[in-house]
Amino acid sequence: MPDSGTIRLSQLATRIEQVLEDAFSTMQFWVIADVTNHTHKVNSNYHYFELVEKVPGSDKLIAKFSAKAWGSGANELALFEKRTGQKFTNNIQVLIRVRVQYHATYSIQLDVTGIDTNFTLGVIEQQRQITLERLCRENAKHIQKRGEEYWTRNKSLQLPLVIQRIAVVCAKDSAGWQDFHHTMENNTYGYRFELSPYFTGVQGEANADAMRKRMLDIFNAPVKYDLVVIIRGGGAQTDFLIFDHYAVGQVIARFPIPVMTGIGHQKNITIADLMAHTSVKTPTKAAESIIDHNRRFQELLLTVQQNIIMKVQQGLVVRNGQLDKLRAQVTNDAHRLISLNKDSLYEIQQRIIGQGRAIPFQHRIGISNLAASLLSQPKIILAAKRKDLEHNADNIRYYQAAFLKNRREYLNYYISYVKNVSPESTLKRGFAMVIYNGKIISDPDLLNTGDKFSVIMRDKELLTTLQNKKDYNGS
Question: Where are the domains of the chain?
C-alpha cells in the first residue's frame, strides 16, 4: 500500500468527513435498534443516546452508534411519547429514521429524523402475548384462557364480607400510596382498616423479582390478610413493563389471597390486571372499591334489620289483635260465671269468714308455743355454732404448728443431703475430679498416653500427664 505522506489529524478528519458526506448526505435509513445511555437536556431539548443491536437472547453487542436528536428530531420524539404514552428512554426497541453524520471531534453520529410509533408498541404487545402464552402453558392448573378472558386461581377466590386487614405493595413515599392511604383513612363512613405497607420498586422489569419476593413475604406473614392491593401512580408505558413480567403475573395468578391492582393506567391493561382478582385504574379507585365493598355489606345488614323490624311489627299487630279478642272473651266469660255462681260465692264467703275466726282461737296455744320456740331456738343454735368455731380454731392452731415443724424437719434433711453430696464435701472425703479439655470426665478411655489433664482434690488442682494406664478390678 503506497504511503500517502504526512498530514495533520484534522486534515485526515476532513477527508473522512468529505467521503462520508459524498456517500451519505442524501440518504436516510430506517434502522431497528435498542436505546441505551439516554440523556435529555430539557433546557435545550437535546437528546443524546446510543443505538445498539445485540445477539438475540444475550447482552453481546453486534453494533453500536452514538445518536442525537434535536430540533425536528426532538419534536419527533415528543410526538412519539404523546401518541403512545411511551417515554423515550433506555431499554426500548425502536424503528427509527436516521442520517449519518461525521464530526472531527465527535466522530460518526446518527442524527434522528423520525421514529415509527407503531413498531415500538408492537414489540411490547408481542412480548406481552408471548408472556401470556407461557403463563397458560406452564401454569395450566392455575391460569387458563377461556374465550377472550383469563381465568386464574386468584379470580376464583371469594372476598370476605368485610375487608379489614390489607397488605399494600407499593413504592415508599409514592403519590399512589399517599392517595390510597388518605382515601382509606378519611372515608365518609368512618370505617377503620389495618393497612400493612410492603414497600418495593414498582417501575422497570429489574424490580420484578423484588416485587415477587414481597408477595411471598405477605404469604409468610403471621397476619391473615383479607386482601392484597398492588398500587402505583401513573407513568409512561415502559414504566408498567414490570406488571407485564412473567414472575409478577405468575405469583398474582397463584396467590391464595385475593389481589387487587390499581396501578395508575388509563389506557392499557397489564398482565398483572388480567391475573388479579380485581383490577381498577388508580390507587384512589382501589380504595373506593374496598370502601364500597364494605358499604354494600353494611347496607345488606341495614336491609335485613329493616326487614326484621317490619316482620316484628307485623307480628305484634296480629298478636295484639288476638290478645284484645282473648281479653274481651275472658272478661265476658268471667262476668257470666260470676253471675251464674253469685249465690254459691256468697255462701262460700260466709263460711270462710266463720272459719277464719274459729281457726285462730282453736290454735292459739300452739301459736304461743311456736312463738316461744322461735325466740329461744336462735340463741341455742348460735351457742352451738360458737363452740364449734372455737374447737375448729384450736385444731387449726395445733395442726399448723405440727405441719410447720414437720416441714422444717424435711427442709433440714434436704439441706444436710445437699451439703453431703456437694462437690466440696465429696472432695473432702478423699474423692477427686478429673478434668480433660475443660470438661469433667469419668471414662478413662477418653485419655491416651501423653495426654495432659487436671486432677482436682480438696483444695488443690494437680496438673499431670498420663504415663500409663492399667485395668483396675474395683477392689
Answer: 9-119, 126-296, 378-421, 427-465
The yes or no reply on domain 126-296 and CATH 3.40.50.11400 is yes
Q: How large is the average pLDDT for residues 24-42?
A: 89
Per-residue HEC secondary structure of the chain comes to CCCCCCCCHHHHHHHHHHHHHHHHCCCCEEEEEEEEEEEEECCCCEEEEEEEEECCCCCCEEEEEEEEECCHHHHHHHHHHHHHCCCCCCCCEEEEEEEEEEECCCEEEEEEEEEEHHHHHHHHHHHHHHHHHHHHHHCCCCEEEECCEEEEHHHHCCCCCCCCEEEEEECCCCHHHHHHHHHHHCCCCCCCCEEEEEECCCCCHHHHHHHHHHHHHHHHCCCCCCEEEEECCCCCHHHHHHHHCHHHHHHHHHCCCCEEEECCCCCCCCHHHHHCCEEECCHHHHHHHHHHHHHHHHHHHHHHHHHHHHHHHHHHHHHHHHHHHHHHHHHHHHHHHHHHCHHHHHHHHHHHHHHHHHHHHHCHHHHHHHHHHHHHHHHHHHHHHHHHHHHHHHHHHHHHHHHHHHHHHHHHHHHHHHHHHCHHHHHHCCCCEEEECCEEECCHHHCCCCCEEEEECCCCEEEEECCCCCCCCCC
Note the pLDDT tens digit of each residue in 178-213.
999 999 999 999 999 999 999 988 776 668 889 999
Q: Percentage of the chain with pLDDT > 90?
A: 34
Domain covering 9-119 in this structure, CATH number = 2.40.50.140
